[in-house]
């Protein structure tokens, strides 16, 4: 019998239920897929706690890798036995499962150079990193970025990608251990925000100028210091709200702080076009497959341990990527 983690109400990690499910046969445009590894992402907590509203009951998780078991009518993009991975949003919800039905259009064929575990750990984080590095700003060698959560899954990939582009990377972390992880992956400068003022240190490190771009996945707690770290006409990229959503503010603030730019992108809008998704995935797979970017899988969980996995994630006990191994 197939297994899945499901939600019947929103709340803390304790609302996650591990139970038997009946998968059934794929319908038109669908495939039945057997998972080998499933990604654990901070966005999953937003579905669980109601930040991202979904109909209930429902599955949870948006990223996994595995093997196509059967295809429905009209499916030509993949075939039985293909190695595939996926990530998305509502169209891929239900990844915390051993088997599932999923639209074939959501799947990305996985090259032999990428293992299932690596794919589950990096499809969402890697595609996020890809659009941040290749679509958000016209980076040139010598530009500088401030990267919050530099020791996290996206942070480690962005750091390595940024160094390939010749950028200076200033990362923020919460502990000395995470600082070392960030340095080991290429961060030029690391700020421990538990005892250092981020904006002041950024100004010191950039001779008072500030950075070209800030990638802020923390949100409420770091918003103002992120703005204060930017150079004139710099770009603030809000990519997450781990500490809570950013309170409303007067756009005049951006003018007062140097004619700053602000964007709140979402991965779904950068992979909605199949050609763009294929291009970003291809570049990502090439960089990982040839060893230019290394994926750190630092936490492995059983699917039945989803409650503990969410507790660890929200307590910021994790580094790099985390996966469920089926």
Automatic annotation (TrEMBL):
Alphabetically ordered keywords of this record: NADP, Oxidoreductase
Location of the Enoyl reductase (ER) domain: 11-324
CDD domains xref list: QOR2
Alphabetized PROSITE patterns for the sequence: QOR_ZETA_CRYSTAL
NADP is among the record's keywords: yes
Pfam families associated with the record: ADH_N (PF08240), ADH_zinc_N (PF00107)
Record Gene3D superfamilies: Medium-chain alcohol dehydrogenases, catalytic domain (3.90.180.10), NAD(P)-binding Rossmann-like Domain (3.40.50.720)
Keyword NADP belongs to the record: yes
UniProt xrefs under PANTHER family: QUINONE OXIDOREDUCTASE PIG3-RELATED, QUINONE OXIDOREDUCTASE-RELATED
Listed name of the protein: Quinone oxidoreductase
Source organism per UniProt: Marinobacterium rhizophilum
Origin organism lineage: Bacteria, Pseudomonadati, Pseudomonadota, Gammaproteobacteria, Oceanospirillales
